[in-house]
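FAQ: What does a multi-protein file look like?

Like this. Sequence, then tokens, then the next protein.
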Amino acid sequence: MRVLVTGVSGFIGEHIAKHLLEQGHKVRGASRWLDSPFPKEEKYEHATIEDPFSKKAWREITSEVNAVVHLIAKTHTQEGGDLSEYRHINVDITKALFEASWKAGVKRFVYMSCVNAVGEETAPGEAFAEDSTCHPAAPCGVTKREAEETVLKYRGKMSTVILRAPLVYGPGVKGNFLRLMEEVEKGTPLPLGGVKNARSLLFTGNLTAAVGKILEAENLAGGIYHVADEEKPSTPELIEAIAAVMGVKPRLFFSPTGLLEKVAGFSGKGDMVKKLTRSLVVSHERLKKELEFKPPYTLRRGLEITCGKGRAFHH
């Protein structure tokens, strides 16, 4: 199978492309950058997309492709930009690629979305399911949901899957997860000992396994699927797990959650702190049931691989 992976030079794109190559698929990687992160080898084809808003440009790249995994996006980890900029990248590019794909005869289209297309947090003891009512708030979530609706509108033209993921971690992770790892490794005292929440996470190895399963499935209903690790740790549990893998002692102390959020709000970091204090859980029962998919990696093993099995993790 020849698979087009867009955004191949990004964190998730690199992991998915390498996994597909290891599984024996041919990969055509598309990015807006001239330099490919992969060695030049027979199975890997690199395509530079200078104008990702052009259907004509995508038609050339999607020729002789069996499936597409679309990852190009502007996410919440990328600072700056208003709603129109998010919409331009997350919606307009997706629409151009989708139309070019079905005209090129692509058999399956996988759109990588995120749980923020549904909402920013879940109530204690609850989880977002695929059919949950969507109330996205942040620009990334709003435009990801708009892109989902665009894809769903035309899903009858080819087999279409929308894969929603929570926070993804793994080798090469950046953003808030990397910062948390660095603070744990340095032994920074963290006022999160009293947080009682639950957060779904997704290790790159579990994500790539799910994508591979979806691409190879013969009788796939399609539509929206959630994917996540089995564990749903609280923030203190995650910090303790990271510390255990690194061989350091977690330095957690109690501070009222409400006070934490209030102080963070004054300093302009309210949203970031709420990602540590609030719950965000997804149900991935549909993927497990329909494809008999079981995430192959535990949280512990995922963290070991992410940290390089010790304290010298790669930045």
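And here is the next protein:
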Amino acid sequence: MITYMTLPGDTLEKIAADLKVENPAYLKEFHNTYCALHNRLAEPVHLKPGTLLHIPFGNEISILNQKISDNGDSLYYHPPQGKITYPIPLLGGMYTVRQLKYQDGRQQASYQYQTELKYLRAEKDDHFFSLQIFGSRKNGEESDSKISSLAKACAAILFPVEIRVSSAAQLKDVKFYHPESTIKNELEALKRYFTDDISASYIDQMKKKTEDKGHILTSIRHMLPVQFLFGAFYRAKYDGWTDSGVYHEFIPWLTHASPIRFELYNRILPKEQNETDEPLKIIQSGKSCDYRNLNQLYDKSYPYQEQASFNSRSVSCSHEAEYIFDRTDLVIRKITGSFEIRIGDVTEKDVLMMEKE
């Protein structure tokens, strides 16, 4: 046991997290066991700076945590062997997706659509889903512009697609349900209804893209809902407490640009006291570690070079996402992701909310 003098901002929760004690209420109990009667802590606990707190040290922490565990009072989830095993088939379902765009704190636009994942089958170590995107709205309204109508007509031909996912929740392959020739013929038939040159050019571009299997896989992988459901988040290794080790991921926050490389880690949040049905919450946080500038990111012909060095013109941005799971079976309930970047004197922010129905 040692005596600790509290600092401004200290709480039992903060001190417990620093000590890796699994329930802060037991810190109060520990202190009250050893302190003078007039120094005992009572609910609600408000620690003033300079409070002398008796706290466990060394092996006492392990003994206290064992007591907490034996009583079923631990507030922390500890992944077995440092890995969380997610039930991949249970990722299937209907998701409502909302994306908000901000500039200097003011909302500029909102988009809403639905993503449907139907679990199909398992083959060896891989899982197969049907992926469908529909119901797109901007600022609460369904656009009736010609280009929007054409895009929806093309999407109705291209989707659904079949995706193949590894046992580690990594997207491996994408296939159309219909032969390439059938899809091209149906796209070509749209020219009877969209007769202007711009529409014809758009349709020809879509036909050309269906020939490139690599482009199809990349396009699906760069959809934000797919990124959040099948990204490196699920493959993080935890180091014995709440934080995972550092890992890297390319995240496609910028529309029409190459994904930005981020250095990330996950943190498992403790549940609240006396909450029996509280979901499991995990925060993914990180900063960009991409040497490219904005112009290079928007230049699709500019490849990422592993050995290139970070410089003063490199893009600087942040990413954070909160994943909410059912605590019993680890089924995803909701994902909220945010991205912030400063361009000149302007701060741009994107927020994506993805909730399972």
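Q: Is there any per-entry metadata?
A: Some entries carry free-text notes. For the entry above: The longest helix spans residues 146-158.
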